[in-house]
Amino acid sequence: MHQDTSYIENANLSHMQQDQATQATHEIQVEKASRLRTILGSTAHVNSFHHQAVDKLGTGLKITATAPDGVVEAIEKEGAPFVVGVQWHPELIAERDASMQHLFREFVKNAELGALKQFYNVPANFKRKAILR
């Protein structure tokens, strides 16, 4: 992890914006072969309130979006149903940004699917107890 974006060579954007939190202040580029690309498209405008950034990725993770200065803005876990990490705050700009609303819908849809999958893969006696609640 980069402890501070000011130490990253060529990181020349302010990733700790001074504008309102509900204001998108910079663009990101989204990688083609990513879940995020199907949700947001090739680019998105995001807000930015971070001073740290991804440096070395963990096993199975891949970078799926970057800021124009190269700072990592999103990661995903390959082969996982829905593991998407973003560096911005979509909850603060979703009211005015349809693409961020789409991101939330996909998150909720996948959480529901995961819950259903877990529910139907548990022992029958547990299902009965859960239904009775």
UniProtKB/TrEMBL annotation:
<dbReference type="InterPro" id="IPR011697">
    <property type="entry name" value="Peptidase_C26"/>
</dbReference>
<dbReference type="GO" id="GO:0006598">
    <property type="term" value="P:polyamine catabolic process"/>
</dbReference>
<dbReference type="GO" id="GO:0005829">
    <property type="term" value="C:cytosol"/>
</dbReference>
<protein>
    <submittedName>
        <fullName>Uncharacterized protein</fullName>
    </submittedName>
</protein>
<dbReference type="InterPro" id="IPR029062">
    <property type="entry name" value="Class_I_gatase-like"/>
</dbReference>
<dbReference type="InterPro" id="IPR044668">
    <property type="entry name" value="PuuD-like"/>
</dbReference>
<feature type="region of interest" description="Disordered">
    <location>
        <begin position="1"/>
        <end position="26"/>
    </location>
</feature>
<dbReference type="GO" id="GO:0033969">
    <property type="term" value="F:gamma-glutamyl-gamma-aminobutyrate hydrolase activity"/>
</dbReference>
<dbReference type="Pfam" id="PF07722">
    <property type="entry name" value="Peptidase_C26"/>
</dbReference>
